[in-house]
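Structure first, sequence second, as always.
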């Protein structure tokens, strides 16, 4: 799967899990700020498994730091599409995020600052910004990522509680996305079981568990295929919807309104509008094509 597509899937997944707006799962509800920043962090985490080779988009996102990180990750995980594309890789990345969250610095003026979580998100937000082209030039990634991380670290330190959840979810979304393409992933790395000969000779089966020990459900075909784009388009709209609702709710709350009540009222009005339009459409059909 392409980098930008991974990022968009990550943002959509976070909206589904963290938002409580209609059409979301709300399994891990966060504040509107958590939905917004989490979407960026999760989008970045959905790119992180590709930090295992040094010329990926992510390696160029926050140079030179991103390049150092990619070199180290590539060495530890055994090269591209190896360790980081496995269940162990997802667990390791989640563990790193959890550990980063434990690094705090006590200050007199601002209390405990979540410096570790802030630094990790600088990198992840820069990954997302680069892949989604939120920043035009490479060096613009630095100010965007630093400003966002610093803002949350100072303004809402408890917000970072969700960091390991967003990182784990993003990494899992990446591995699932690559699993839908032909190449598949070494899900059980470092154990890479090879299928028996009869399995390799059977059509379909040899694609699900390949001779290289990779697993796949290759419904999307090759990376960047039209099927991949067809899957990502509605997910992009969904991510935009969820983050849009978070901006509106966050804005209303900041202005002193009961955001939940306002959104409910809008929602009822929208439903009535859709109901009305459906009735008008049905009547129109009857007139145009009676019987
Ligand atoms: Zn990948």
């Amino acid at each position: 799967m392409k980098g930008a597509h991974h990022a968009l899937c990550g943002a959509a997944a976070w909206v589904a899990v963290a938002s409580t707006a209609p059409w979301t799962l709300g399994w891990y509800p966060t504040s509107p700020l958590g939905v917004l920043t989490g979407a960026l962090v999760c989008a970045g985490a959905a790119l992180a498994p590709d930090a295992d080779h040094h010329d990926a988009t992510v390696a160029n996102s926050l140079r030179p730091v991103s390049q150092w990180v990619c070199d180290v990750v590539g060495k530890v995980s055994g090269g591209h599409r190896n360790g980081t594309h496995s269940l162990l890789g997802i667990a390791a990345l989640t563990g790193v995020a959890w550990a980063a969250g434990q690094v705090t610095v006590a200050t007199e003026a601002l209390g405990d600052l979540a410096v570790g979580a802030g630094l990790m998100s600088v990198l992840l937000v820069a990954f997302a910004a680069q892949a989604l082209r939120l920043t035009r030039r490479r060096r613009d990634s630095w100010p965007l990522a630093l400003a966002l991380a610093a803002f949350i670290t100072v303004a809402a330190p408890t917000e970072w509680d969700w960091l390991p959840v967003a990182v784990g979810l993003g990494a899992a979304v990446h591995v699932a996305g690559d699993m839908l393409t032909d190449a598949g992933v070494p899900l059980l790395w470092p154990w890479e079981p090879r299928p028996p000969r009869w399995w390799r000779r059977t059509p379909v089966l040899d694609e699900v568990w390949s001779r290289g020990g990779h697993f796949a459900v290759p419904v999307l075909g090759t990376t960047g295929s039209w099927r991949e784009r067809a899957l990502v388009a509605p997910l992009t709209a969904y991510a935009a919807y969820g983050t849009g609702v978070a901006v509106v709710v966050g804005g209303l709350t900041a202005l002193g309104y009961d955001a939940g009540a306002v959104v409910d009222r809008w929602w009822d009005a929208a439903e009535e509008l859709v109901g009305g339009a459906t009735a008008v459409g049905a009547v129109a059909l009857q007139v145009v094509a009676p019987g």
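Margin note: Strands lie at 105-107, 111-113.
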